[in-house]
Amino acid sequence: MRRNLDVGTLRSxxxxxxxxxxxxxxxxxxxxxxxxxxxxxxxxQSLDALLLDRSGRGVSLTNEGEQLLDYxxxxxxxxxxxVDRMVAPQFEGxxxxxIPCDLIYPHGPEILGRFDRDFPRVKVNFVxxxxxxxxxxxxxxxLDLILTTESTANAESECLETKSLVWxxxxxxxxxxxxxxxxxxxxxxxxxxMAQAALDDAGIAWxxxxxxxxxxxxxxxxAADLSVMALLDGSYDDKLVQIPHNGKLxxxxxxxxxxxxxxxxxNENLGREFARYVRxxxxx
Length: 284
Hints:
Layout: H1 7-19, H2 22-29, H3 33-47, E1 52-53, E2 60-61, H4 63-87, E3 93-99, H5 108-118, E4 122-128, H6 131-139, E5 145-150, E6 158-169, E7 181-186, H7 192-201, E8 206-212, H8 215-223, E9 229-232, E10 241-242, E11 254-261, H9 268-283
Parallel strand pairs: 3-4, 3-5, 7-8
Antiparallel strand pairs: 1-2, 5-11, 6-9, 6-10, 6-11
Helix pairs in contact: 1-2, 1-3, 1-4, 2-3, 5-9
């Protein structure tokens, strides 16, 4: 017969690990120390395993405890998500989400589709622009949450991913072999100064073939094999590929994908719900 693990007991187990002791965990959980100790004891008995090493000062995990902790966190998270979904109010209204063109793929369609499925009464005001403008709109209170591509993380945002810039071109294209190199970029693209500096430092002659307000014109020229672009690895569709230059083009720096969520606003709850879908997409 299968044994069933109690989520409340797993929550206490994880709290003991996070707090570094039973007493502090009990305070966090608003339980008595004896109640938490009894839960841990019952959990160990149900699994026939010692989960915590109590021989030294404080507590530490045994090998069995380390194995269980990961499962415990996942089960607690799934439990809380299910409860939130079932008892949450029916959200209505509009949430404003900003994302740079270079981050629309691969996660943008998935995020919008899943959120619309689960919150059909909420209208998503979708804004696509470059990161500096999105930050201006966010700081002015015009957007509830935004994604940005920035060279570093910061205290005001949450870094979801660090990705490398790569040189992209048309599938089977030869533009990257031309001299001077044809380089396409959006006028306000954050990658522009990095890519140009990398080419200059490598002594590679280049010329700008397309300058637009968005990446669309640059992407069109690159897909036609008129130029190359610098894009985040994996953030492009099948019209472009990473160029197999074998070191003939200079390496490019990493960029952070940062998430900003507005606080203390009328739309804070909607923004927080939408942010959960953004995080899940990047975590997957």
